[in-house]
Amino acid sequence: MRIPVTIAAALWLAGGAAVAAPLPCSEIPAAQRFIAGLRPGPNTTLAQRHLDAAKRATSPKVCDAELRQVDRYARRSAAADARAAQHGASAPKPNASGPVPCADLLHQDRPGGSDYHGPPVAGCPSR
């Protein structure tokens, strides 16, 4: 009875310690699309820096390491965006450099876009 339990426990522990599959460099375009949909912030900036480093990677190992960092910071940024949306901060704030940018082909989460869920913004077309 002890031997089957020991074998089962060893197999269970070995399954938990399995190394995650490497992230191939072919994931770079998907990562870029995901980052483009995030709000600006420190985690988004760090994710973009690591993505740029992954694009310059000279080996699959380096690319994998950089894409893991992209994933780490992009997840943090997405979580922060979700928290901000829950607290009513879904409308972008005007910045000092000019008016709020309206939606375009790549940024449908801006005012006037199909993914925008905030109040109407003057100067941007309504859906």
Any overview of this molecule?
With 127 residues, this protein is mainly alpha-helical. The chain has a domain at 21-86. It contains four helices and no strands. The chain has helices at 2-16, 28-36, 42-55, 60-86. Helix 2 packs parallel to helix 4 and helix 3 runs antiparallel to helix 4 (60-86). It is elongated, with a radius of gyration of 21 Å. The protein starts with a helix and ends in a 41-residue tail after the last helix. The relative contact order is 0.10. The mean pLDDT is 77.
Keywords:
single chain, 127 residues, mainly alpha, 0% strand
- H-E order: HHHH
* Discrete helix count: 4
Shape, please? elongated
Low-pLDDT runs: none
Give a short account of the largest sheet: none
- Quaternary arrangement of the chains shown? single chain
Helix content: 40-55%
Report strand %.
under 5%
Give the C-alpha Rg.
Answer: 21 Å
Nearest-integer average pLDDT: 77
Main structural class? mainly alpha
Number of strands: 0
Query: Separation of termini?
Result: 67 Å
